[in-house]
């Protein structure tokens, strides 16, 4: 959002009429007379009340609402003292009277308004002298007192705070136009301000609001920027040099050593001339001695330019976390009803924002990540992230990725190790489109399995041939079942193939066919709903894919979202949304409402304990054992690997804190590049050379160890004995009866009597049996399977099946059914 700069100037209207000048002279003199006699109502207006000029002047607005100055918003780490970044439109730090050196106060009065403590808001001598300059042909001069300058700056400030661009420009023009009308309004407001405020308060306001070049406003920010010191420490020479700037901020600023007119080579000659004039005025009005004057004049201008922490790029390894904090603020209606209002208030409101960031954990996380997946590795385009969340509070303790942060398009275009995209978070919060989670998503099928009364040690069918249909009750267009092609995913290794298994075995070893067998006995829509109850959603904000494959983690989800979900599992099934802000205070020190964690029950504590039981086995005896720090703290976890190992994960938690680590192909994020199989790559880090697909383990382990050392973690609670029991059906194998040719009702009765459950019907084209009758079952008749297996029926439509051998496409190739 473009804002007008305080240094811009409106052009003086050509050919100012004599009438305008005469009118200005008359009004200015009247105003001066009023001030000269003290503006006492009885004396100043008696005998003059019949003057139209005085009446017009007195009818101008006489009250100025100073309002709040624009100040920078500071973002701090969780310790409340380490500054991560500042954001602002105007770099200003408002300070009190005692925080400004007397040298600066004396320089301001001597240089800008020597009779400041004597007049009532308008310096008559200065006004008449300025009018003489105006009549000589130069720009309109106002002879502005400090009070008048303060009034003008307040009006400019108010203009620049307006959100609407047209209104803002009009208000700015009204506050700065070199017209008699504007000057008279300024004078009237100055008189009113002098009645309401003390001289010291006006001088303090002036020193806090004045522009000191560029975006530097106020004496404190100026002292910080030009000299690297607080305003309370300014010497006589330094104070005079800074006050010199306010006379013409762009001309007298001394932060450009290469400037040919006012640069280091000539000792910042123009600034020095103005500074020495101010020092002379201080000597003239006995603010300094001759000795102090001579020493200050002899002192060269030697700036120590200290750039403020501007934007998140200055936050080091916390830059992406900082960017997320800003996005949280920009989306919080506490800061305004519209995007523009929130943007403006954050950049101008002077808030102190204390975040949840644990600096020690952040450093450990970045070191662990960069040790194996550095941003500068040019051999392959691989990304990595790690995010940790405190269970029970949702507080984000750390957030890192292997790229460097920048919002500069030129830097990003020329340096591939820089990125503006925060890979840990949703697209709406400055992130990307997310990444497939692979098997880390399987825990939500486990949750639904236990929630619906099944047990950890219950067996079920897990054929490698897959299943022809699944319950999908939210699919109203297809009578509540999934009717796509048969989904038969392969397992990672052939030794995992088994026609039946338990939920515990499927979870421990992350067996795809096992989870599809569990899903077959559940409902796909219910699995999705359970996942959503843990806060899981697609990173791009679209509806999640809900076919059978989603059970294995095909939806693109942000790593922080997975960390939040796993914190919910560790927190006995109560999930708290992510929060990154502990407290906010405004410029007055008053507390501001912060975005809070919304905590809600995802599953019952018993179900969560069952999940924890199985997920502990992953870390001690399953696919996650390489990630376990083995430090005496119990952990739950789940690994994940997507197709061709383009993305790999370890997500886990202690009872206290969760951690989600992702390593994957950056190119696969937007679908425009070639996916990299991490199994084909080798990377070398602190623990030697490992396959890139194993980097998740050597990253997760030291971060989790650091979490445990600081936050500890109690043992997980065992689930109720009933949840660990083996189902009675798991020990019984029986033969599937032949129900072909039977009606659906009769077939259902036959199968139920044999100890099976009947799944959703799949309609198939067949003339072998009448329409509505059963053609076959899956598994087929006479197969031996576990008693209790869900068996779908294939039901005839009565239509002849399509003979694909007689149909060719335009190229003569057989159509693919």
Automatic annotation (TrEMBL):
Domain PASTA: 730-797
PROSITE patterns: PASTA
A GO CC annotation given for this chain: outer membrane-bounded periplasmic space
Pfam families: PASTA (PF03793), Transgly (PF00912), Transpeptidase (PF00905)
GO biological process per UniProt: peptidoglycan biosynthetic process; proteolysis
Alphabetical list of InterPro entries matching this protein: Beta-lactam/transpept-like, Glyco_trans_51, Glycosyltr_51/Transpeptidase, Lysozyme-like_dom_sf, PASTA_dom, PBP_transglycosylase, PCN-bd_Tpept
Coiled coil: none
Keywords, ordered alphabetically: Carboxypeptidase, Glycosyltransferase, Hydrolase, Membrane, Multifunctional enzyme, Protease, Transferase, Transmembrane, Transmembrane helix
GO MF, any single term: penicillin binding
The protein, known as: Membrane carboxypeptidase (Penicillin-binding protein)
Organism per entry: Rathayibacter oskolensis
């Amino acid at each position: 959002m473009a804002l007008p700069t305080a240094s811009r100037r409106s052009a003086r209207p050509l050919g100012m009429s004599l009438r305008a000048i005469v009118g200005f002279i008359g009004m200015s003199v009247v105003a001066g007379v009023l001030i000269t006699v003290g503006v006492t109502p009885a004396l100043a207006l008696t005998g003059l009340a019949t003057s139209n000029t005085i009446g017009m002047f007195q009818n101008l607005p006489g009250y100025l609402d100073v309002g709040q100055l624009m100040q920078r918003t500071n973002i701090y780490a969780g310790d409340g003292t380490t500054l991560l970044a500042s954001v602002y439109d105007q770099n200003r730090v408002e300070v009190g009277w005692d925080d400004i050196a007397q040298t600066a106060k004396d320089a301001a009065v001597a240089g800008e308004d020597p009779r400041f403590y004597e007049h009532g808001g308008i310096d008559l001598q200065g006004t008449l002298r300025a009018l003489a300059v105006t009549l000589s042909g130069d720009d309109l001069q106002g002879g502005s007192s400090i009070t008048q300058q303060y009034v003008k700056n307040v009006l400019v400030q108010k203009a620049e705070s307006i959100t609407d661009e047209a209104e803002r420009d009009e208000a700015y023009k009204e506050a700065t136009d070199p017209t008699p009308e504007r000057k008279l309004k300024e004078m009237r407001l100055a008189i009113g301000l002098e009645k309401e405020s003390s001289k010291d308060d006006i001088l303090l306001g002036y020193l806090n609001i004045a522009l000191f070049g560029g975006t530097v406003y106020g004496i404190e920010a100026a002292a910080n920027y030009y000299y690297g010191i607080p305003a309370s420490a300014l010497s006589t020479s330094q104070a005079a040099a800074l006050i010199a700037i306010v006379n013409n901020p762009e001309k007298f600023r001394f932060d450009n050593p290469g400037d040919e007119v006012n640069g280091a080579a000539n000792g910042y000659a123009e600034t020095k001339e103005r500074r020495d004039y101010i020092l002379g005025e201080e000597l003239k009005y006995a603010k300094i001695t001759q000795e102090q004057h001579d020493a200050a004049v002899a002192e060269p201008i030697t700036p120590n330019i200290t750039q403020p922490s501007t934007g998140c790029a200055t936050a080091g390894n916390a830059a992406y976390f900082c960017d997320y904090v800003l996005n949280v603020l920009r989306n919080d209606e506490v800061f305004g009803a519209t995007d523009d209002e929130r943007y403006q208030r954050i950049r101008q409101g002077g808030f102190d924002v204390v975040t949840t960031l644990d600096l020690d954990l952040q450093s450990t996380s970045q070191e662990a990540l960069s040790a194996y997946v550095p941003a500068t590795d040019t051999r392959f385009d691989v990304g990595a992230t790690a995010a940790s969340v405190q269970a029970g509070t949702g507080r984000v303790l750390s957030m890192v990725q292997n790229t460097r942060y920048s919002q500069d398009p030129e830097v990003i275009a020329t340096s591939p190790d820089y990125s503006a995209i925060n890979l840990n978070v949703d697209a709406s919060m400055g992130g990307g489109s997310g990444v497939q989670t692979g098997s880390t998503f399987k825990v939500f099928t486990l949750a639904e399995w236990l929630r619906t009364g099944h047990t950890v040690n219950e067996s079920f069918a897990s054929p490698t041939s897959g299943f022809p249909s699944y319950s999908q009750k939210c699919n109203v267009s297809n009578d509540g079942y999934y009717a796509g092609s048969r989904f038969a995913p392969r397992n990672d290794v052939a030794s995992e193939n088994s026609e039946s298994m338990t939920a515990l075995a499927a979870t421990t070893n992350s067996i795809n066919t096992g989870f599809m067998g569990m899903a077959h006995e559940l409902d796909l829509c219910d699995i999705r709903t359970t996942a959503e109850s843990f806060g899981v959603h697609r990173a791009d904000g679209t509806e999640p894919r809900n076919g059978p494959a989603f059970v294995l983690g095909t939806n693109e989800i942000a790593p922080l979202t997975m960390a939040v979900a796993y914190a919910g599992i560790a927190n006995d099934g109560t999930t708290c949304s992510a929060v990154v802000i502990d407290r906010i205070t405004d410029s007055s020190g008053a507390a501001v409402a912060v975005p809070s964690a919304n905590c809600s029950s995802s599953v019952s504590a018993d179900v969560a304990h069952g999940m924890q039981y199985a997920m502990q086995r992953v870390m001690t005896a399953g696919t996650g054992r390489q990630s376990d720090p083995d430090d005496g703290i119990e952990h739950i976890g789940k690994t994940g690997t997507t197709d061709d190992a383009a993305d790999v994960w370890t997500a886990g938690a202690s009872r206290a804190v969760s951690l989600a680590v992702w390593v994957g192909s950056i190119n696969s994020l937007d679908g425009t590049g070639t996916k990299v199989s991490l199994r084909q790559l080798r990377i070398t880090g602190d623990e030697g050379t490992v396959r890139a697909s194993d980097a998740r383990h050597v990253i997760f382990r030291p971060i989790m160890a650091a979490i445990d050392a600081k936050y500890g973690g109690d043992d997980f609670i065992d689930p109720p004995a009933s949840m660990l029991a083996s189902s009675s059906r798991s020990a019984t194998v029986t033969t599937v009866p032949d129900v072909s040719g039977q009606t659906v009702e009769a077939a259902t009765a036959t199968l139920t009597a044999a100890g099976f459950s009947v799944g959703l019907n799949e309609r198939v084209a067949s003339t072998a049996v009448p329409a509505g009758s059963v053609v076959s079952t899956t598994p087929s008749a006479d197969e031996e399977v576990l008693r209790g297996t869900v068996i779908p029926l294939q039901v005839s439509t009565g239509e002849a099946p399509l003979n694909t051998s007689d149909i060719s496409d335009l190229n003569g190739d057989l159509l693919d059914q």
